[in-house]
């Protein structure tokens, strides 16, 4: 999949992600990792994402899965997306409304300051970054394979395929529970995600 001009924060901060496998029309297997506020451990998550075009509207949803080739890493805490996604409704040629749903278990017992910070800042920050990316997207897309649109034409995807039978739902209670509830907030020398756009 192509990267847009702005990378969105995922889970508890800015991070990186990539599509690993393509299944069939409108489904793909996605890995992402995220920086957490120091001194918490960083998280990663593996999801099965799907999107459904409905005329001028889209539904984009994901939930956590597991795959034998991508077990939890020792240096990261494997988080769980219970149900996360967007409802995008067209409101004219250059306008839309977005409804964002995030049911995520970051695993572990987290300090209250993390919960408060997440609920107050992350969703609004994600929407702000998405808005900025959307404004830049038409011009950017004209310069980057303008006819390549696998979200409309899945047959254009060059991702390898994998059998759906190789995946199973990732339940939160099957993962290690990390107790970080006693950790105090400190200055994050790993760097906070900037509100400025980044080109990837």
Automatic annotation (TrEMBL):
GO molecular-function terms, A-Z: lipid binding
GO cellular component, one term: membrane
InterPro entries in alphabetical order: START-like_dom_sf, START_lipid-bd_dom, START_lipid_transfer
Pfam families on file: START
Top-level taxon: Eukaryota
Claim: Acyltransferase is one of the keywords in the record: no
Transmembrane segments: 17-33
Coiled coil: none
Keywords: Membrane, Transmembrane, Transmembrane helix
Domain START: 39-139
Residue segments, region Disordered: 175-200
SUPFAM superfamilies xref list: Bet v1-like
Protein name: START domain-containing protein
Originating species: Gopherus agassizii
């Amino acid at each position: 999949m192509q990267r847009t001009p702005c990378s969105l924060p995922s889970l508890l901060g800015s991070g990186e992600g990539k599509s690993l496998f393509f299944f069939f029309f409108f489904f793909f297997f996605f890995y992402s990792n995220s920086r957490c506020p120091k001194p918490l451990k960083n998280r990663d998550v593996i999801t099965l994402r799907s999107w459904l075009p409905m005329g001028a509207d889209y539904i984009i949803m994901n939930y956590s899965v597991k795959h034998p080739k991508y077990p939890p890493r020792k240096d990261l805490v494997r988080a769980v997306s219970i149900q996360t996604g967007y409802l995008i409704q067209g409101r004219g040629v250059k306008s839309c409304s977005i409804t964002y749903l995030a049911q995520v278990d970051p695993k572990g017992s987290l300090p209250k300051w993390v919960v408060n910070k997440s609920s107050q800042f992350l969703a609004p920050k994600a929407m702000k970054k998405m808005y900025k990316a959307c404004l830049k997207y038409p011009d950017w897309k004209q310069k980057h394979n303008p006819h390549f649109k696998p979200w409309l034409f899945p047959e254009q995807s060059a991702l390898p395929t994998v059998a759906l039978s190789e995946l199973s739902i990732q339940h939160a209670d099957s993962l290690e529970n990390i107790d970080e509830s006693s950790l105090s907030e400190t200055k994050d020398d790993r760097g906070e995600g900037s509100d400025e756009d980044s080109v990837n």
